[in-house]
Amino acid sequence: MAPTHAVVLGGGLAGMLAASVLVRHVDEVTVVERDKLPDGPTPRSGVPQARHAHLLMSGGARAIESLLPGTLDALFAAGAHRIGVPNDLVSLSAQGWVPRFPEMQFIVSCSRGLLDWVVRSQALRDNKISVLTGTEPVSLLGDRDAVSGVLVEDRISHERMSLEADLVVDTTGRGSRLPAWLVDLGLPAVHSESVDSGLAYATRIFQAPPTAASGFPIVNVQANPRDPQPGCTATLLPIEDGKWLVTLSGTRGGEPSTDESEFVGFARSVRNPVVGELIASAEPLSPVYGSHSTANRRMFFERLKSWPAGLVALGDSVATYNPVYGHGMSIAAQSAQALDAGLAAGHSAQQIQRGIGKVVDGAWAMATNQDILYPGAVGKPLPLAGRVLQRYVDRLVRTATTEAAVTRAFLDAFTLSAPMANLVSPKVVWATMRGPRSASPEPTLTEDERDRVTG
Ligand SMILES: Cc1cc2nc3c(=O)[nH]c(=O)nc-3n(C[C@H](O)[C@H](O)[C@H](O)COP(=O)(O)OP(=O)(O)OC[C@H]3O[C@@H](n4cnc5c(N)ncnc54)[C@H](O)[C@@H]3O)c2cc1C
Question: Cα separation of 375 and 225, whole Å?
Fold first, then answer.
């Protein structure tokens, strides 16, 4: 029998995780990547968002670890921080300061460049995976019933070749051309939806004060979509090498500028000035980088009545989310787990794609139900049931500012560690109905933490 072969389009985070799944099921895997992949944690043009804050939630971290055992230790050895949540989190949620209860979940905090490099190094230790860099897919081979490979082109020589494959997995991210390729195969246009709050990001890296270079919390001031003004946020992440990565964001009408002289002022102007105060005297190490790639956009591949055998998509090529929720990478990792489970169970490509749709559902609802509330947001208005549910979630998040059981339920869902359905378990509904006691009106930064920066 001929060896079985799978092709992964795109060698980003989702691509490397998909490749690490596929080697469990086929003899050879080829990853087709447009960029040259750096041998280090350096930014590259194919992942421009890597300049900005990237929180890896515990639900995603566990998924990566299950696919590539040893990755979390490798990340921590390379300087990533393990931030206990909510004990190492100073966070003003839409409804108030989150108390620093003992650890319930965790976040991996490092630069996106480091995360990608470590995951890639772990995946490529398997010599059944090879990478064709500087190469792009041109079209799918096969027909509307079954994909049999992909036609690729070298970006410099423009030489083309056909890669025959038993399975093609598209992970080319938000610019994926899969919807057009499906139409070329004779399939109908894929239904898509988007909710765009018009959010812009601005990010700068700072040298953390030596006394705060390690053991410092994530500090995060979120927006409240119910406020009548644009939603503005400021987030300080401790990353590797004793640095702080600070990301500011604002929805339509409240976008942060990339002018360096306005950075600290914007950080002070959000709902609480704590991030601005912490960075006021810190040494900047980078220019200010901007991004507008923040819309929630979903391709409902799983809704196509017919789907070709031998084709799956996952990661940002299926759905992107407003990045302030920090869910894209975790959903990519959990989708790779769904791919693994589907292949192990002998499911068809269509069944696997439907499974990936289910993985996307929770994060999609969480992001879009909030974002549509911001002034000037573009997208389908929430139906009545959605508006009622959203009122319940507002009260739940408010209750989470004092009631540990509700904080846990909320953080389990927010870190994608438990199904959203747990938010409506009888215990959580009852506590939410009772509501919060009086929450802290002040940032939950300790005296010691503040002194380590200002003192
Ligand atoms: C500003 C910003 C901040 C974010 N913050 C967070 C966060 O805090 N937490 C979180 O979990 N997520 C965050 N996200 C989302 C996260 O970046 C994505 O969900 C994640 O990168 C998805 O991985 P991916 O591999 O699907 O796509 P990508 O990371 O975009 O990778 C796509 C890969 O495909 C390659 N490629 C593209 N086109 C082609 C082609 N035609 N041929 C060959 N190769 C191609 C690219 O070079 C790249 O290697 C953020 C996103 C943005 C925009």
Answer: 8
Tens digit of pLDDT for each residue in 356-366? 999 999 999 99
Confidence of residue 124 (pLDDT cuts 50, 70, 90): very high
Structural domains of the chain, with CATH: 5-47+113-193+297-360 (3.50.50.60), 200-291 (3.30.70)
Query: Hey, what amino acid is at 232?
Result: C
Residues lining ligand 1, Cβ inside 6 A: 9-15, 32-35, 46-47, 49, 52-55, 136-137, 171-173, 175, 201, 291, 293-294, 315-316, 323, 326-330, 332
pLDDT in tens, 277-321: 999 999 999 999 999 989 999 999 999 999 999 999 999 999 999
Report the percent of the chain where pLDDT is more than 70.
Answer: 100
Residue 133 · residue 120 · CB < 8 Å:
no
To the nearest 10°, the Cα dihedral for 361, 364, 367, 370?
Answer: -70
Residue closest via CA to ligand 1's atom 20 equals: 329
